[in-house]
Every structure is written in structure tokens, then in C-alpha cells.
């Protein structure tokens, strides 16, 4: 919903969230509210415990006006579930973190295990003094979501989660409103709140991590599609003769370039020796694993060790930084694949910015340069004339930031 | 703008446009307006000459209520400029045509020539008694448009039109509001008003004509992109080794399949004899052209004749209907190309319907079957589970219908 369309109480709360304490006088001017209307709204929000007075503003000439701010007691829980991680921030009303938790976790353990672990972490946050009670919970999950129903819908990498009542569970457990969205959508929302897409109305947020997805922000709001799966670009076919994907089709974008695909290709060129930089790292990791096994008195079976040792995007980025041509080639080939798909999406949606985030964003400017080159070459000049293609600013915090924005919006909307 | 968000006068006018005469009592119920509010709004719209009383409604028990309708005098001009055609409808308030004009014309003649020809046709319509004065003019043009500014923006096939003040010109000439949009957007709007996408909020309208474009209807409204060129899908690269396109890139969708591309390929298989059905038609056309030349006493130079004679999409459709395998192959190959791009756009935008329109829609179910097959095979099941891929119902009237909708919306919005 556009700010201008929103009811006054929502506009007041959002302004205080995004800009901090403001005097009553300025609030009335900024939101174009008459003095009696403003007074009534402020009084109601004070009574509801959502805002509080915060001393006197500096004089603008004439009578000094009272500052108002979001109530210091307000707390939101922001949760970002990844394929293999749980990230939680408890924030104040201004969405500043007051407590942060991160742990490794497997989304395939199912909703009961994962959501109870989320509850345990939040119980710990309460014990740690991060909050007395929560005003809203926002959560992102790595799969399609029916935003209206607050449930995952046929999520391919989340067995057991299909239509599990995530929103209802969290709302009941914490006695507050809850909101559920796709993980890439919350990253896009986060980047728009506090990152590189600040105040940009039309942009694409492309997450390149374990998989690939796209958050679509159009006309100032997230576009989720009729089934909640808009932006599911990882399974676009980019090479009819490419490798088989986890979805069963061949040549999907994420079968060719994603965290998993890059790890596979990097390991291959490390083993073959084609990449000296990665071969050296692989040997180092194997030696370390062997020492660790020996120090625990286990037999250091070379073959088993070799299977456990992996190469990551970080290694490829480091190799590229050292000038290893194979590492650079792997990144550029990936960038070319992603760029090809993005060129199509730019022609279709004519956005004003593209933000690249997710774990593989650490491949940095080599990746970015290749994506840009393909997007600019293959899309029409009108669509790319002023189109920045940039890296995420928030990095791994994009998701929780967006979840906090959603949580606060939900709390504010229900305060009418 | 969603109907529910719109101000009362707009909701009244749209309801009367879309459904015809309604009693005051029903109007109040349907729009959830209090009786005093409704009376005030109706009185104001009567005074503004936009609505009129139309006798008494049938009794619903109790006092009979007066029917109101859009004023019978209301007239909108709807104009659809194609690459090689001008289509005009003058409609009444309910968007029913009261006069229709169609003529061949070359958009490359530039705005002065084309818009003066439009004015001549409208002058004729006035002389024919179609209207005394116009309440609004809506026009679609075959290129990107800044909807806000009412001007074409860098339109590739419209030399001389870049930023020409089309809206201002028409508004001044006709003394009424005017609105300018892209031709594919108005076709999408038309199809949603009176065609197969009736009341569908999220759909893609794919026009396959001289070129290829896509009208994007999301959350109940046209999405035009930040530069007005959203949906410009004709220059998406589908084959890096494909033919050179008019845009300078290689292997663009419309270089491989569009009216122009199909005419080129059809002529080739007619000349080579690979398609007996097309070879026979070509020979027939050449003989007819020779007879026409002879009857005019011109020399029947075979080579020059051969260059003038063309094969059209209609011929290919007829050949396919007769079972000519090469015609069927040409259509299926085209459908496969379009389907591949649409599969990508479905994964990205998760719409609830795809409508295929434009001149090549006459290739009918052979084309449709191939597009469907590729879209369903390559997109994820969640996005295609309930996704109809259907042919336009309005055909060549889609554009003028949409232009009339836009014109009426503009007139109604300015009536506040």
C-alpha cells in the first residue's frame, strides 16, 4: 500500500519507525493532517501503547512542540529461515536489533522441529531481557507462500511444510500478530528499507544462494503472483543440453549456477588440477581433515576424507582475487547465465534497479561485471539507460530486516 | 486503481458503464453508499451532464426507484494505431460503437500526417452524426509510451514520434481529456473489459503481430514499467545463432517468429517447393498479379512480379488446416519459441491467465497447443496448475475497446 493511500495512524507509525522521534507540529505538517485530527490520532496511539512522548522539540519559533516516538517498549521478532540456517533478530520499534541469534539448522527437519527451535531461541531472548512481550512476528521461509493464508505452498525443498499453519502457530505461541512470506521477498523488503534500494519503487532483488530466486518490487509493493510463487526464476531453462536439475527438468538456471552448482564445478576443477588455486585449497582442507581425524584416533581413510571436504564460493572468490583464471572463468560463466535471464526479465518488467544478493554475492565485482555486460548488451537501450545493477548492501541481514519491516507493518495495521 | 479504492463518483460511473442502467436503490446497495451521499453524488453527476434518469425501475417491493444511466449523449473516441493501420471507434458511454473506421496507413509517415488523418476520420464521424462533441479520446501507439507525459518514448518503429505531444495535440484539437498508451497495453485492457480476461486481475496479453509485445496486468491494473517499456518481449534473445533482428541484436524472439518472420519463412518454403500448399498459393498469386499487370497493359516482368507477391499468416494457417506438414512445422516451431519465453515469464510473474492475440493468433489451435505444451513442461507445477493459455476473444477489436476504456476512465476521473 502506498504511504499516501494509507490511513493516518499507519502513516504516523511508519514515519516514526523510519525516521525516529518527530515533534507533533512537524508530524502534522509532514502528513498533512489537521491539528484536531492529529491530536485525536496521537492520543489514540498513546492510549494503545504504541507511541510515547519524548520531551520537547527544539523551538521553531513560537511555542515548543512535544516530540513523539514509537513506544520504547515495542518489540518485533524477525525470523529468516534458510535451507540450512535460522536467523533471528529481536528489534525495537525502529527496527534496530536488540538481540541477534544465528544457528545452523536443516529446513528439511520439518515445521515442528524448526518452529520449536525458533521458540526456544525466542525464549532465550526473553530470558536475556530482549523483550517482555512481542508486538508482532515476521518470518521468511525458503519456498512459495500464500501470503493471504500465512502458509507455505508446495515448497520444493521444505518436506512436511506444505500448508503448515506457520502464521497461526507463531501468533498463538506469542500472542501477537504474525506474518509469513517467502525468503527472497523479505530480503527485497529489507533492502528497500535499509539498503541500496532505499525508497526505490520498482526493482528486482536477485538472491543467488543455495538456489536462485527473485523478489519483485513493483509500484512500491512486493508482487507475489497469484499462487505466491512469482520470482521463482531458479528453474528457468537456460540450456536445453544442461545438467539435470533437482526439479527433474534439464538445464535450469540454478542447476548451472548457484551455491550448489558452483561447489560442484569448483570441486571438479580442484580435483582435475585445472585450477591451481582451488587444487591447493582442496589439498589444504584434506590435510586438515586428516589431522583432525588422526587426533581423534580415527582411521584417516583418504577416500572418505575426500568425499567430506568441499570447496565453497568463498574459495572461488579468493582464487579469482589471486588471479586464478579458472576461478574467474567459473564466475564469469555463472554471471553470463544469470545475466541472460535478467536481460529477459528487464525487457519484460522494465525496473529501475537490480540488486544482487545471497551467498554468491560475495563473488563480487567479477560476477557483477559479467551480469551487467550481458544485461546491457541484450536488453533494449530504453530499458537499461538508467538501470543500476548493484550488490546488496545488507548482505546476510537483508532477510531479518525485511521480516522486521513486515512484522511492524502488520502490528501497525492491526492497531486501527 | 482498484474499484474499492476509487472515489464514489468514479465507482458510480464505472458501474453504469459496465452494467448499464441501474436503479438508485441498487446503486446505493452495490456501492455501499449512504442514501444522502448517493443522492449528492448522483445530483452532481446529473448536473455535470454525465448521467441521466432513465425511467422507473421494476418494483422491489415498496416505493419504485428511479433508474439512472450514463447520459446518452456521452461519446468517446478510441484510436488504435498499428504499424500499418488506423482503427477508430466512436462509442457511447457504455463503450458500444456508434461509428467505426479502419484504413491502411504507415506509422512511419510521422505524427503530423497520421494524427491529421485521425482528425479527418473523426471529422467525418462528426459529419456522419456519430457525435456532437467528444468527452475523451484514447489512443494506442505501437511503441513505448510515457503514460504520465502522454508521449511516445524512443519508439523503434515510429520515426519522428519520439516525445511528440500526442496527448496534448488530441486534447487541444477535440477540447476534451486525452490519454495515450502502448498498443499492447490497450489490447490487454480491452480483453479484460469485454473479452476472455473479463475481471481477471493478473494476466499476460501476448500480441503476436508484425512484432511481439506483452501487456502486463497485475493486481487489477496495467503495469507499464519505469520507462513505459515493460512487456517489450520481442527482443528477448532466444537463439544466439539466430537471424539478425531489426534492433541490431541476433536471435531476438520476433526475428524468429512474428508476422514478418513467418512471411519470410513461408515465402522461402513456397519458392523451394518444400510446402506444396504454399507453392500452389504462391503460383496462384503470381498468376493473378500477371493477369492484373497485363490487363493494365504493363509488361509482366516475372522477376518483379515475384518480388511483389507475398505469403501471409492466413496462407500458412490455411495450409496447416489442409494438412501441409511444412505449414504445421512453421507454426509449431514458432509456438515453441514463444512458449519458451512465456515459460520464463510465467516462472517470474505467476499470472492466472495468458491470452494470445494479434494477427498471428489466427494460426489458432496448432499454435496454441505448442505454446501450452512448452509452458506447461518448463514452468513449475505450482505456477501452471490453474493457468489457462487461451486465444483473444476480441481479435482486432481488442485495441479500440481498451482505448475506449482508458478514454472513459480519464473522462470519469476528471469529473470530480
Explain what the structure shows.
2 copies of one chain form a homodimer. By secondary structure, chain A is of the alpha/beta class. Chain A has 15 helices and 15 strands. Chain A has a 5-stranded mixed beta sheet, with helices on both faces. Chain A has a 5-stranded mixed beta sheet with strand order 13-12-11-14-15, sandwiched between helices. In chain A, a hairpin with a 3-residue loop joins strand 4 (76-81) and strand 5 (85-91). The model of chain A has no long low-confidence stretch (mean pLDDT 92). The interface between A and B is large, with 45 and 45 residues.
CATH class of the largest domain in chain A: Alpha Beta
Q: Which range best describes the helical content of chain A: under 10%, 10-25%, 25-40%, 40-55%, 55-70% or over 70%?
A: 40-55%
How many domains of chain A? The number is: 3
**What pair of chains forms the biggest interface?**
A-B, 45 and 45 residues
What's the rounded overall pLDDT mean of chain A? 92
Beta-strand proportion of chain A: 15-25%
Anisotropy-based shape of chain A: globular
Q: Describe the sheet with the most strands of chain A.
A: 5 strands, mixed
CATH architecture assignment name of the largest domain in chain A: 2-Layer Sandwich
Which fold does the CATH topology of the largest domain in chain A refer to? Nucleotidyltransferase, domain 5
- Listing every helix as H and every strand as E from the N terminus to the C terminus, the arrangement of chain A reads HEHHEEEEEHEEEHEHEEEHHHHHHEHHEH
Q: Low-confidence spans of chain A: pLDDT under 50, at least 5 residues? A: none
Task: Tell me how many strands of chain A there are.
Answer: 15
Q: How many angstroms does the end-to-end distance of chain A come to?
A: 15 Å
- The helix tally of chain A amounts to 15
Quaternary organisation of the protein chains? homodimer
CATH superfamily of the largest domain in chain A: ATPase, nucleotide binding domain
Radius of gyration of chain A equals 24 Å
Organism (chains A, B): Paractinoplanes deccanensis
Family (chains A, B): Belongs to the ROK (NagC/XylR) family.
Protein name (chains A, B): Sugar kinase
Keywords (chains A, B): Kinase, Transferase
Amino acid at each position: 500500500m502506498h504511504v499516501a493511500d494509507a490511513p493516518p495512524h499507519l502513516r504516523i507509525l511508519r514515519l516514526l519507525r523510519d525516521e525516529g522521534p518527530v515533534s507533533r507540529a512537524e508530524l502534522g505538517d509532514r502528513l498533512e493532517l489537521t491539528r484536531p485530527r492529529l491530536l485525536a490520532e496521537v492520543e489514540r496511539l498513546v492510549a494503545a501503547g504504541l507511541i510515547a512522548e519524548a520531551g520537547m522539540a527544539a523551538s521553531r519559533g513560537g511555542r515548543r512542540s512535544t516530540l513523539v516516538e514509537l513506544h520504547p517498549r515495542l518489540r518485533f521478532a524477525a525470523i529468516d529461515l534458510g535451507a540450512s540456517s535460522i536467523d533471528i533478530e529481536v528489534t525495537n520499534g525502529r527496527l534496530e536489533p536488540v538481540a541477534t541469534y544465528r544457528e545452523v539448522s536443516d529446513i528439511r527437519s520439518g515445521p515442528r522441529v524448526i518452529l520449536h527451535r525458533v521458540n526456544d531461541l525466542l525464549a532465550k531472548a526473553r530470558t536475556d531481557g530482549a523483550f517482555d512481550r512481542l508486538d508482532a512476528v515476521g518470518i521468511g521461509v525458503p519456498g512459495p507462500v500464500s501470503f493471504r493464508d500465512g502458509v507455505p505452498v508446495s515448497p520444493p525443498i521444505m518436506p512436511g511444510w506444505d500448508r503448515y499453519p506457520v502464521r497461526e502457530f507463531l501468533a498463538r505461541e506469542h500472542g501477537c500478530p504474525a506474518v509469513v512470506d517467502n525468503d527472497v521477498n523479505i530480503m527485497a523488503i529489507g533492502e528497500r528499507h535499509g539498503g541500496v534500494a532505499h525508497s526505490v519503487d520498482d526493482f528486482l532483488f536477485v538472491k543467488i544462494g543455495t538456489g536462485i530466486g527473485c523478489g519483485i518490487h513493483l509500484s512500491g509493493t512486493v508482487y507475489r503472483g497469484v499462487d505466491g510463487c512469482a520470482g521463482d526464476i531458479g528453474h528457468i531453462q537456460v540450456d536445453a543440453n544442461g545438467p539435470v536439475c533437482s526439479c527433474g527438468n534439464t538445464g535450469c538456471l540454478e542447476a548451472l549456477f548457484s551455491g550448489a552448482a558452483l561447489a560442484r564445478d569448483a570441486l571438479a576443477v580442484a580435483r582435475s588440477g585445472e585450477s591451481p588455486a582451488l587444487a591447493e585449497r582442496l589439498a589444504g582442507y584434506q590435510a586438515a581433515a586428516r589431522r583432525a581425524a588422526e587426533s581423534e584416533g580415527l582411521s584417516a581413510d583418504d577416500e572418505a576424507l575426500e568425499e567430506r571436504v568441499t570447496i565453497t564460493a568463498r574459495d572461488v572468490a579468493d582464487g579469482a582475487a589471486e588471479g586464478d583464471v579458472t576461478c574467474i572463468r567459473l564466475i564469469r560463466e555463472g554471471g553470463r547465465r544469470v545475466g541472460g535471464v535478467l536481460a529477459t526479465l528487464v525487457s519484460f518488467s522494465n525496473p529501475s534497479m537490480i540488486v544482487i544478493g545471497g551467498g554468491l554475492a560475495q563473488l563480487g565485482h567479477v560476477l557483477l561485471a559479467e551480469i551487467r555486460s550481458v544485461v546491457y548488451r541484450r536488453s533494449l537501450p530504453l530499458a537499461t539507460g538508467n538501470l543500476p545493477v548493484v550488490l546488496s548492501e545488507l548482505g546476510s541481514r537483508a532477510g531479518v530486516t525485511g521480516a522486521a519491516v513486515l512484522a511492524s507493518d502488520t502490528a501497525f495495521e492491526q492497531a486501527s
